[in-house]
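Regression test case RT-17, inverse folding.

Input:
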């Protein structure tokens, strides 16, 4: 069942660091004994890949095309430049505000080579988040892409420098401001490469951010050894080879970009085509010109945009052999429309910054690929479906909280002792907050995601599970997509408001008409949406998921404005 066992890997002691929850020693020994953890760092593994695939294409962007040798040489030069030309030392953390450009890949890999820890913040993060996260991890530097968006990153960098929140700012793709240093300057300083083996494989390699929907994201510390394994296990599960070319349009510096795309691609000799954004016309251009074989992560919201773009019907999509949907619940209608309208056969995955990836088999039945997220990618992954808030497992087939433990799932968030007591069970299972069910389909044990524990609207203590209602609304012939969110209510606390995207030429759906339809579907009256808002597109989070946070804010602001209008006309009428 397990990969070939190996006695050759020395059992090194685990490192200890304040604020880091280690894997128990006997578990580490077990992972190494089974050959899952290989005792090597990310830069050492990447250097091997650069050697083995030196002349193959590693990275394609609309601007550049780099071979493995070229990319790794640039990363090494950048890494040595960091060590020679800045205050950064092994173990220091660096914040990122960079998008999907080649400089980001070079800087990320350069950090790994230098033993510096990238913190995968996004250029979309605001000053407040960047400052608080920099403080949380004790970051020493900030790397920015000056030409991203409207150039806000430069202002954030100045403010962090002025406040002494970071000591170094590296500016890519723009003029360095006073007190900052340019990407080119770091490259110029770079000299002799630090030997990749100089980086301790038992240390934290990268900080990823949790996908939590409220408050400040939590920080997931990823170790070299387990992150290498995570990336290789994903590439193996997908059968990636030097013949694979994957297209990635979501922000690279997120766990999905790093562990579902960049690292597994580079560790298997594949090429990665990095789209600077997820505009459908650009993606279609890249699909037709670069002929990717794999799309490793398409959130359903992006799949809907693909379906709605008329050019998708005439574009040549024939190179795509693996179209993987994940990050969010997949409405079955979308999977069917992709099949019927574009001839694309999809399969689902499930993943998270804390670790644990699941995938459905590529030639599995639709029952498997459309309705489940499959099974974990490692034989040593463990899943328990626990009673919500409890520690007992629910009976097979019943819905409970999806809890995960394994060779690439963290044992605790970084510097979050208090939060960790709730987020992890005593025996180290991460409580994902996702509702799931285990079942047998086609003779396989697989999991389906049934909603989020917190995606619940509390209407005067009556709970409304958003996904249950959305599922029924999607059966309405005029509805393309639906997102149910809580709107504040003085009496009941919360009521349900639904945001809809309607089919072309469909007329507005009223609260009443939608209610009648849902009652006809057997939905309880208290679960009916009490307000309908129609949009052309849903706001997306930084990583391409429908942002319910933005929708909740939208409806709260609308209600507030309506109340103020009412109040002022009441005053005027007196
Ligand atoms: P992140 O840490 O940003 O990658 O987000 C992880 C979360 O995304 C999970 O805990 C789930 O709530 C959600 N998620 C990921 N994949 C799926 C999927 N296939 N179906 C439903 N939810 C998903």
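Golden output:
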């Amino acid at each position: 069942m397990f990969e070939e066992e190996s006695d050759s890997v020395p059992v090194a002691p685990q490192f200890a660091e304040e604020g880091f929850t280690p894997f128990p020693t006997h578990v580490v020994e077990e992972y190494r004994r089974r050959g899952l953890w290989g005792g090597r760092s990310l830069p050492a593994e990447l250097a091997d890949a650069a050697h083995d695939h030196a002349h193959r294409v590693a990275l394609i962007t609309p601007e550049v095309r780099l071979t493995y040798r070229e990319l790794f040489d640039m990363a090494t030069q950048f890494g040595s430049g960091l060590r020679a030309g800045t205050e950064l030392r092994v173990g220091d953390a660096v914040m990122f505000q960079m998008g999907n450009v080649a400089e980001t890949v070079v800087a990320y890999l350069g950090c790994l080579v230098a033993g510096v820890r990238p913190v995968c913040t996004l250029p979309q993060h605001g000053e407040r988040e960047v400052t608080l996260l920099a403080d949380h991890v004790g970051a020493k530097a900030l790397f920015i892409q000056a030409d991203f968006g409207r150039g806000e990153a430069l202002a954030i960098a100045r403010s962090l420098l002025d406040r002494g929140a970071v000591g170094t700012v590296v500016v890519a793709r723009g003029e360095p401001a006073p007190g900052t240093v340019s990407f080119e300057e770091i490259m110029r300083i770079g000299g002799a490469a630090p030997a990749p083996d100089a980086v301790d494989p038992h240390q934290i390699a990268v900080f990823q951010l949790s996908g939590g929907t409220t408050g400040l994201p939590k920080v997931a510390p990823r170790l070299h050894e387990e992150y290498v394994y995570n990336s290789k296990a994903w590439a193996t599960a997908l059968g990636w080879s030097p013949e694979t070319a994957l297209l990635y349009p979501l922000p690279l510096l997120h766990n999905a970009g790093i562990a579902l795309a960049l690292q597994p691609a580079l560790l298997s000799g594949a090429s990665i085509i990095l789209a600077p954004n997820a505009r459908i016309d650009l993606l279609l251009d890249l699909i037709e010109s670069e002929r990717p074989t794999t799309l490793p992560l398409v959130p359903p919201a992006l799949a809907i945009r693909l379906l709605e773009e008329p050019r998708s019907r005439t574009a040549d999509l024939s190179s795509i052999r693996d179209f993987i949907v994940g990050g969010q619940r997949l409405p079955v209608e979308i999977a069917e429309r992709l099949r019927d309208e574009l001839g694309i056969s999809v399969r689902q995955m499930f993943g998270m910054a804390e670790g644990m990836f699941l995938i459905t088999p590529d030639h599995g039945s639709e029952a498997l690929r459309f309705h489940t997220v499959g099974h974990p990618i490692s034989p040593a992954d463990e899943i328990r479906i626990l009673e919500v808030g409890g520690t007992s497992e629910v009976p097979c087939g019943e819905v409970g909280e999806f809890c995960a433990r394994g060779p690439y799932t963290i044992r605790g968030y970084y510097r979050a002792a208090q939060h960790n007591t709730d987020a992890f069970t005593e025996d180290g299972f991460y409580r994902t907050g996702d509702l799931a069910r285990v079942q047998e389909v086609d003779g396989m044990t697989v999991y389906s995601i049934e909603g989020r524990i917190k995606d619940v609207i509390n209407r005067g203590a009556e709970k409304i599970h958003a996904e249950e209602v959305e599922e029924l609304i999607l059966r309405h012939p005029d509805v393309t997509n639906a997102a149910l969110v809580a709107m504040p209510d003085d009496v009941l606390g919360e009521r349900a408001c639904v945001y809809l995207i309607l089919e072309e030429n469909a007329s507005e759906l009223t609260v009443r008409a939608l209610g009648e339809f849902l009652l006809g579907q057997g939905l309880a009256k208290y679960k009916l949406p009490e307000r309908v808002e129609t949009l052309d597109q849903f706001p997306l989070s930084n990583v391409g998921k429908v942002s319910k946070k933005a929708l909740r804010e939208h409806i709260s602001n609308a209600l507030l404005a309506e109340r103020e209008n009412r109040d002022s006309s009441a005053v005027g009428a007196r």
